[in-house]
Amino acid sequence: MKNPIKLEYYLAALIVITLLNTFLGEKFSSTTLVSVLIAITVTYKGFIVIDHFMELKGANKNLRFLMRLYFVIFPSLIIVSAFY
Amino acid sequence: MKSHPIKNSLGIFPKSWSEEHAGRIPGNIPIWVGILSELTEFGIFFAAYFIAKFYYPDTFAQGPQSLHTSLGVTNTIVLLSSSYFMAKAMAFIRVDNKIKCERYLWFALSCGVLYLIIKTWEFHWNTLQGFSANTNEFFTVYYYMTFNHFIHVGWASCAILWVIFRLRRGAYSSTEHSGLEALAVYWHMIDLMWILIFPLLYVLR
């Protein structure tokens, strides 16, 4: 089994980011900066799951591209919606 | 009759999409057709959210404050953990360790069931607070998204049970585990959708 410890690190990172996002949302009222930070972290979380849990890194490049594109488009809309 | 040398392919995609050119397809092609269909479905949900938020910004700014954030956070951690357990199950079937593979599948299933219990409690809690799908536009979108996601977790949990049954019957090994891998990528897709749903409904004001 390759890199047996790595998955644990990724899980820890995902949980920390989730808690950080919640803290940002709870403590700071709607600001563009908070929305941008949340959008970036959502993209990062998506990329981690796609590459390391779904194991698309090193697998089919088209599927990986489509999945990652999804996690660029919708977080971008979060940023756009901050300017409503 | 001459057989076609198409392996793990429906033969309907361009050559550049073939495994030889683009790389290995985890699971099988039918599950990816399903996954891409689900992504489209959830994409429509997300589009509906952003359109509704554009027209009702105040409702969507107040909406998350009415929700039980702790339950949303807990469910996020539960689903992330389930994805981790599923990835571990895949790692163990690759080394033919079926006992540990099954153990991690049970862990993943437990997370799925825990998610369903927490979500049911959250729906009940909303009802006690007087919230329903008809309360306002935010709650319409909230129930539209989360109940659909709830159903996906439900049937994917049933699929984990099926895969455990198949694993016990000796259907999977280090050389042949495409069925297990197909479930794994589907499960991760469900987790990915929650990664997007959570900030939209619980965090962003």
UniProtKB/TrEMBL annotation, chain A:
<dbReference type="GO" id="GO:0005886">
    <property type="term" value="C:plasma membrane"/>
</dbReference>
<keyword id="KW-1003">Cell membrane</keyword>
<feature type="transmembrane region" description="Helical">
    <location>
        <begin position="7"/>
        <end position="25"/>
    </location>
</feature>
<feature type="transmembrane region" description="Helical">
    <location>
        <begin position="31"/>
        <end position="53"/>
    </location>
</feature>
<keyword id="KW-0812">Transmembrane</keyword>
<keyword id="KW-0472">Membrane</keyword>
<protein>
    <recommendedName>
        <fullName>Thiosulfate reductase</fullName>
    </recommendedName>
</protein>
<feature type="transmembrane region" description="Helical">
    <location>
        <begin position="65"/>
        <end position="83"/>
    </location>
</feature>
<dbReference type="InterPro" id="IPR005171">
    <property type="entry name" value="Cyt_c_oxidase_su4_prok"/>
</dbReference>
<dbReference type="Pfam" id="PF03626">
    <property type="entry name" value="COX4_pro"/>
</dbReference>
<keyword id="KW-1133">Transmembrane helix</keyword>
Automatic annotation (TrEMBL), chain B:
<dbReference type="GO" id="GO:0005886">
    <property type="term" value="C:plasma membrane"/>
</dbReference>
<feature type="transmembrane region" description="Helical">
    <location>
        <begin position="104"/>
        <end position="121"/>
    </location>
</feature>
<dbReference type="InterPro" id="IPR035973">
    <property type="entry name" value="Cyt_c_oxidase_su3-like_sf"/>
</dbReference>
<protein>
    <submittedName>
        <fullName>Cytochrome c oxidase subunit 3 family protein</fullName>
    </submittedName>
</protein>
<dbReference type="InterPro" id="IPR000298">
    <property type="entry name" value="Cyt_c_oxidase-like_su3"/>
</dbReference>
<dbReference type="GO" id="GO:0004129">
    <property type="term" value="F:cytochrome-c oxidase activity"/>
</dbReference>
<dbReference type="GO" id="GO:0019646">
    <property type="term" value="P:aerobic electron transport chain"/>
</dbReference>
<keyword id="KW-0812">Transmembrane</keyword>
<feature type="transmembrane region" description="Helical">
    <location>
        <begin position="141"/>
        <end position="165"/>
    </location>
</feature>
<feature type="domain" description="Heme-copper oxidase subunit III family profile">
    <location>
        <begin position="31"/>
        <end position="205"/>
    </location>
</feature>
<dbReference type="InterPro" id="IPR024791">
    <property type="entry name" value="Cyt_c/ubiquinol_Oxase_su3"/>
</dbReference>
<feature type="transmembrane region" description="Helical">
    <location>
        <begin position="185"/>
        <end position="204"/>
    </location>
</feature>
<dbReference type="Pfam" id="PF00510">
    <property type="entry name" value="COX3"/>
</dbReference>
<dbReference type="InterPro" id="IPR013833">
    <property type="entry name" value="Cyt_c_oxidase_su3_a-hlx"/>
</dbReference>
<keyword id="KW-1133">Transmembrane helix</keyword>
<feature type="transmembrane region" description="Helical">
    <location>
        <begin position="31"/>
        <end position="52"/>
    </location>
</feature>
<keyword id="KW-0472">Membrane</keyword>
<comment type="similarity">
    <text>Belongs to the cytochrome c oxidase subunit 3 family.</text>
</comment>
<feature type="transmembrane region" description="Helical">
    <location>
        <begin position="72"/>
        <end position="92"/>
    </location>
</feature>
